[in-house]
Amino acid sequence: MDFAQRAIDIARASVAEGGLPFGTVIVKDGEILAEGRNLVPETHDPTDHAEIRAIREACRKLGTEYLTGCTVYAIAHPCPMCLGALYSCAPDEVVFTASREDTGPYLAGGYNKYFEPDSFYGEYAKPWDQRRLPMRYEPYDDALDVYKLFHERTSGGQ
């Protein structure tokens, strides 16, 4: 089976049903472990991306948060959120069939005031106080204490 084509077919079906043009397939040992399509408009959940849905399903099936031994096929280069999730679940490989540069003209100026494919990824490289999304840092000692507690618990006090 052509797994990359399957991701394209999922995205095409999504568009035909009035959805967004994203599809993902996760494969392990030559078999489809999970599939996903972007359901953001249907669920009103901005994290309900094709990659995230497929990662969640695959991890549940495997009983782990890691996708070791898996290949992820996505129709397009993953957005920063999905890319972060992919780094977190550590698949062996990610294959995408359309670049940001190629898809950008079809996604720009649309559905999210912060989403411009050419600048979206660049926003993450900026210092937090220079991003388009307004952010404010309010330091609390208690917040750091939570991380100290976690470190003590996971490192045996070392």
TrEMBL record:
Show the SUPFAM superfamilies listed in the entry: Cytidine deaminase-like (SSF53927)
Q: Where does the sequence pass through the membrane?
A: none
Every copy of the CMP/dCMP-type deaminase domain together lies at 1-114
> Its Gene Ontology molecular function terms?
guanosine deaminase activity; zinc ion binding
Could you tell me which InterPro entries the record lists for this protein? Answer: APOBEC/CMP_deaminase_Zn-bd, CMP_dCMP_dom, Cytidine_deaminase-like
Tell me which stretches of the chain form a coiled coil.
Answer: none
Q: Which UniProt keywords apply?
A: Metal-binding, Zinc
PROSITE patterns per the record?
CYT_DCMP_DEAMINASES_1, CYT_DCMP_DEAMINASES_2
Pfam families attached to this UniProt entry: dCMP_cyt_deam_1
GO BP field = purine nucleoside catabolic process
What's the protein called, per UniProt?
Answer: Cytidine/deoxycytidylate deaminase
